[in-house]
Sequence to fold (200 residues):
Amino acid sequence: MMNKPWAESCDQNREPILEVIRPLFSESGSILEIGSGTGQHAVFFAQQLPHMQWHASDQSDYHAGISMWVEEAALPNVHGPFQLDVMQEDWPQIDIDAVFSANSAHIMDEKMVEAMFAGVGEILPHAGVFALYGPFNYDGSYTSESNARFDEWLKSRDPHSGIKSFEWLNSLARAAGMKLQDDVAMPANNRILVWVKDAE
Fold:
């Protein structure tokens, strides 16, 4: 029997992320999480934000682990895992008003990131929020030595992955009908980028 998956980074970053998303999603009733990974974030945020319905999703390889977290927590407001590979044509048919994703863009290749932004733009309603957590580059530069080392490690595993440029991500968001609302500095040289659909 497999052990419940656990990532140290999820426990380290969950409180700082919660501080940002609690007010951000205060008006949101239903969230899609892209790339739920271990399932830790889904359960923690659903516990802390009981007014919201949290929908965990990922590629099928991760479903068994996510299910272990979801089933053990037995929360009424966490759902899934739903099958979602950002490259798939049909995304889960869920009525949502916000999207959250953590530590996903840098493990994707460029085509996958493009597909993610296009897909989010399609499923978000007017004034819907997309919050993306992770490390990003600005003006063609790393924001820290540790991010440069992390990027080198990512590319050694998969040459098509790596830390993405904020400017490029923002252009994808604009093309998908979203406007940047905030760029929040987080611990360990990470950020949360926040876009809003059809924002004036």
Observations:
- The domain at 8-23+32-144+158-197 is CATH 3.40.50.150 (Rossmann fold).
- The longest strand covers residues 178-186.
